[in-house]
Queue: 4 jobs
Job 1
Amino acid sequence: MDEKLTIDPWGSSQSTDYSRIIDQFGLSSLDGLAIENPSRLHRRGIVFAHRELDLILEARRKANPFGVLTGLMPSGKMHLGHSMVIDQVKWFQDSGGDVTIAVADLESNATRGVSLEEGRKVAKEEYVAYYAALGLNPEKTSVYFQSTRNIVQKLGFQLGKRTNLSELEAIYGFDGSTNLAHVQAPLVQAGDILHPQLDEYGGLRPIVVPVGVDQDPHLRLTRGLASKTNWFNVNQAKMGLQVGVSIQEENERKMGIDASGRVNKEIRKDVFSKIVESISNLGFSDIQANPKHGTVNIPSATTRDRGSIKMALLQLERSMGGYGLLSPSSTYHRFAVGMTGDKMSSSKPKTTLFLSDDAKSAEKKIKKSFSGGQATIEEHRRLGGDPDKDVAYQYMMYFFEEDDAFLAEINQGYRSGKILAGEMKQMCIDRACEWLTELSEMKDETAHLVDTFFQ
Ligand code: TRP
């Protein structure tokens, strides 16, 4: 009953017990969040969970800077499942976010045997070509390769110090026989996720990582790593909020510990006056510094002030020579079911629609797709079909039908038996063919933009 789920980002199976995933891994449900101008994926519960998305929504509302980072494995062909991430990236981009996309060429080289050269080609000709066609703005998107962005590898290496094999074992289920590429890949991915907030890449701002839930282990790791580097923590206190100072090997001297381990009062005092100054710049006046205890209290601050205090202290940390890393926010989407009713996978072409599929092969796949209808027409009319299991309906909902009212209508019609399984498939075929044809036209029209994504 209480058996623990593990999420294996490299595995071929994936739990779809989303409420259990939310519970076990401490994700927040999207239900309680007010999202202005929600996308199709938000309205339909396809994006179902998040970590600290509120930070991003607040920046979005206030037109403050925020960034979006995601990554692609440059192996195989781009399919509809991949396009879901890009839909979300575009939504964030359209509401003011800057976009960075990692080509995981190191990861796919090490874990899937794709050469770096091949990875580069696939990224450009397959993935980014479709990103352009799907409407990402090349002027506001920067795509890079893990293998050539030094800072990403360096950051991954340096952050490795803040974790150990036991933690990786607990997060990923590794054991003694685990290939070390699977140890390195998450560290590089942590570098991917954190580097956009470095001063050379846009500076301190909230970064959101939209991913499938299979990638959450990397986010748990990365968030842990980032917070372990922080010099100042902001916690709930009996009254208001309390800042705690975290003394680490890296910052001992700057925090006023001398070589013999004694506290240098002058330096310590100076650190605390800097903290007080940073916080009073935000408008708080009742700040109490306790250098002896290593804490600063702000009785009038509420949890809603936590974000802005945190940001001010990360900025202070940077000015003192630390990383000043903010934990990334993230969102998670459900996986669209494969055409056959099993998992969608690039290596099994029958399970998925590729963005490069033409109308004919799309038609063939949808005709053969797993149906939620009854065995005979007579039974279907009497008992109705199950849209939750019907692949054709699911694909309309996930990908092809924008109109919520129409979707509700065919959902009802299917359930009541008015719409037959073959009719549902035909609707899906019509919409899919239209969608794919349009996409392929767009791909030609936007081909000249592809290089700009890499600048
Ligand atoms: N590991 C991801 C995948 O399997 C690819 C990836 C690399 C990524 N770096 C990332 C995803 C950073 C999100 C954020 O698809």
Job 2
Amino acid sequence: MTKHRILVLGGTTEAKALAGRLAGRADFDITLSLAGRTLDPRPQPVQTRIGGFGGADGLARYLKDEKIDLLIDATHPFAAQISRNAAEAAGKTGTPIFALRRPAWQRQDGDHWTSVTSMEEAVNALPIEKSTVFLAIGRQEAGAFSARPEHAYLVRSVDPVEPPLAVPEARYLLACGPFALEDELHLLQSEKIGLIVAKNSGGSATYSKLEAARKLGIPVIMIERQAPPGIAEAGSVEAALPLIDHLLSPARKRGE
Ligand code: NAP
């Protein structure tokens, strides 16, 4: 049987879950690609390759060399560069592509969100008066808050923030979701958090901090996503499965 070769660009819970669902298909040959940012990546259900491709051209070369039949961009909604590269490489090589992307969180009654479009805007949106700020934005861009040393910070990330923030008051919490609402309520109260900075990542694993903020009346600076490249999207693993079969169907390949 000729197998369909599928490359899943990962680094998310959804990518792993999708790979797990596809792993049992005898007609699929799945490779999951990881950037290599996480120091101790979780075991994955399919073969993995780790590290960048060398831009859109490098990815296009990989798609050709490896005879990839379908590219699935299941990267994090804030991993904008690899998503742009994926769309460009798929376009150049004529490889079918879609994105598995969780829908963004929507503001609810009782939320006190200030929406911004970049980390720089988030830094500028901090209040003048001193606050204890909970940074729930991952480690890669936390350093931007060194520009506001008048605040105290609690920084939560999967891997250590290196170098640490150049501010007098910062504490670091290494933790990996999912996070329970009770635990988030306890954390925000015990740490006397006055403000949260978050990325609008979507999904359920890290939503509880926003529910906790709503209950406690804590304001949130919400960094919204950049517009994604204009390719087909599935919002969940369930929605992705029929799309995969459709994109690989012989009728579609014949252009019917
Ligand atoms: P990014 O800025 O969009 O990508 C930067 C470069 O990293 C890309 O140009 C590519 O290098 C390489 N890369 C990214 N994802 C890759 C993948 N899945 N496989 C191979 N190479 C990849 O990405 P990022 O924001 O640094 O995110 C890196 C990884 O962490 C992604 O896998 C993403 O899903 C995951 N992640 C990101 C966030 C976030 O908030 N940004 C949160 C959770 C998880 P080349 O140009 O050399 O190909």
Job 3
Amino acid sequence: MFFITTAIDYTNGAPHIGHAYEKVLADVIARYRRLRGEEVYFLTGVDQHGQKVQQTAEKEGIHPATFAKKKTKLFLNLWKKLGVHYDGWAETTDDRHKACVQAILSDLKERGELYKKGYKGHYSVRQEQFLTDRDRNEAGEFGPEWGEVVEIEEENWYFRLSAHAEWLKNYVSSNPDFVIPGFRRNELLGALANPADLDLCISRPKERLRWGIEFPFDPDFVTYVWFDALINYISFAGYLAADNAGLPDFTSIWDAGRPVHVIGKDILVPAHGVYWPSMLHAIGFPDKRLPQILVHGWWNMKGEKMSKSLGNVVDPDELADKFGVDALRYYLVRDIVTGKDADFDLDRLVMLYNQELANELGNLCNRALNMTARYSGGIVATGAATNADDHELRASLKAVTAEYRVAMDAYDIAEGLKAINRHVTVCNAYAERNKPWELAKDAALKPRLDSVLAHLVESLAHCAVLISPVLPDPAARIAAQLRMDSLLDLKFDDLQWGLVPDGHETGKPKPVFPKIVTEEA
Ligand code: MSP
């Protein structure tokens, strides 16, 4: 079992392109692992508690629950539109999640992991966290990244995170694959270098924040939003759940492989790299039950961070309507290297779709099926003798399939797509060179014509399967036009030469990737 999760998105605003990227990336990985023959459980969802939701709801004059529900709908609708297929949906206001968070709090208290103390100091409303002098900038001030900073004095509950710091340092140092890619791990080790003052304030007094999960043993307090949110990865996987809760069986999800959490680079330190492993350790998870963290980079706008205040946020819903889901899904994983940042560029979205899908793969589909229909009555004949050119094409497919696998296993979706595209280019050049339209003029050349057409159709079938994790709908359209209904039920290891049987009748081509025509064109 491969258990994959994403970060759960804040419901204080609408989904943006960064959210869409992360969900599509996880969806592609989940689909690819299924193609590899693995059983997969994909969990995603929304983070509905916290001060930001409370504040924004207050501004709108509605209850935070109503507000969070309204925003949650936007996420649900978008994932449906973008073909993000999850198995589990996490909403932190779900009673089953609340019960799990409360049980964990009680358990940690029993274990002596929690204590209550008074505190006076600075607090960032935007980041919902207490600040120390280490958070001041060179000028000795709290910079604009903290938003409104207020002075507060209050009692709170603390988690003895510092008691786990030594263990965590050792764990991170001796488990190089805890965080991928590797350079992010160095960031984490850097943050762990001086673990002063690590204890984590995990409560908020109700007079300041009502919108959260109540402390089971101290009802004047609610749970700090990050402590609540991180637990979604286990609560919705069935941890401590009743048999009839409608959640999966925890051990069959969590222990039958290594869970992978897909998150953005901004929430590795401290949330996923420091808090979460320490929390799991404190709850009693042994090292071998800790998840792996896959950290992706950010989509920026012309090198700048996307933010509401800069007015440069891209709305994925609008983009999907304007350019189509296929173009958007393709672009989101094609023009970024997993782990690194990239610039979101609409011209490149259109260019990559038009060039690599409409002109290349779309063209191969159209040609292979059109010429088979026109010159061979739609019948694929695989028995003809092959020549060196055919062997080269087969070798290309073999090499590309192996390269695709290496890239996809390493979560490098862009390289996986480039590998497919290399073979598509080889196929189109092969068609140009072998000119089936000329071969068709001479009956004596029929065996050669058959072989060329069969090689193109066979290649198309393989490419449809390989591209299916990224573009499931176009892959299904190609399978339908090939009249190979069960093509997409194949597993990766089934991808051997000979998927299209001798005498198979293909269907009529219809454009799979209609070209995007922009206003300037
Ligand atoms: N609610 C927390 C996560 C809790 S997980 C237990 C949160 N939410 S968020 O809505 O701010 O971000 C959700 C995810 O979207 C994060 O992984 C974040 O890194 C990612 N992205 C937000 N903006 C992004 C880009 N511009 N580009 C790529 N991903 C980005 O953090």
Job 4
Amino acid sequence: MKYPKPSLLIFYGSLATLGFSFTFTLFFHLFISKVDSTLFFIIPILGAVFVYITFRLLLRKFVEHRLSLLYRSIQTKAEDSSVAYEDESLDGMIENAEKDVQDWQSKQDQEIAKLKEQENFRREFLGNLAHELKTPVFSIQGYILTLLEGGLEDETINKKFLERASVSTDRIVSILEDLDQITKLEIDALEMNLEPFDMLKLASECIEGVELRAKEKKISLDLKHVTDDIFVNADRKRIAQVLTNLLNNSISYGNEDGNTTISVFVVDDLVTIEVSDNGIGIDNSHFPRLFERFYRVEKSRNRHEGGTGLGLAIVKHVIDSHQQKISVKSSFGIGSQFTFSLDKA
Ligand code: ADP
């Protein structure tokens, strides 16, 4: 049921008082003693005006007091709310309070949704982390137990098992290093060391860094550019990490005798960098989650490659902190292309 506005209620009350005083004056005039004709009208009108003013004042005080208590508990208005109401009518006060409460509620709803999302993220992250660490830790445990139970004396396995345990240790170390890097990126997101540098030189250095891995898989690495001396304004160390991660992925998920190309070109004030390969490719259904921590397209395949599942998460973090975007184009079985841009220096 919709109630009329408070000012209208007071008005109806005053009208009722007017009617009642008029009937009472008439009754007095007819049955008790004669009343002067001017008083006949003045008494009811004065009564109604008195009721109107008094009720308006009292109701305003009451509403003001109650609202200030309410506002104080939801903390959306100044503590001394009487100041805030000075220019407001009684109806306005109530309408504004309704609106403020609705705003407050939708803000609370948003806050709750955000907290729930963070909680889910935290739970999923811890689950993933435990899962990632479990495999190498269990295998180290297995090798150590076998060695302790007599394997240490067995020349055919002792060295082999120690080597395998060492590979698993390396895997744990690389997961921890990547995690450490992500955490640092989150903490120092604002502390970017922006400097102008030669993008082509950096790309060549990164190619050199992964050359050995590429050779093992007979993957050729190329750098394409239309102009020389392409300078960007960015954090050199972090961009080196981005390129290395993308190059490493193109090798891990590339086919033997394949090809990876870094293309650098300038579009207006931006330098666009593309890392493309003709590897196994990614189905586009994976695109929305590809840059999430620990997300893998195909669980067993990638673990086999020894990736931490954090490479693209780091890449995205770095590009985001440069206020730039990274995008992916890929077709399953054909190849992938990762593209990002940086400010031209
Ligand atoms: P990982 O350590 O598993 O490589 P990333 O975050 O670097 O983790 O990559 C996430 C997933 O995206 C990989 O597991 C892989 O399935 C897919 N991926 C990344 N780059 C490529 C690529 N160039 N070609 C095909 N798949 C890729």
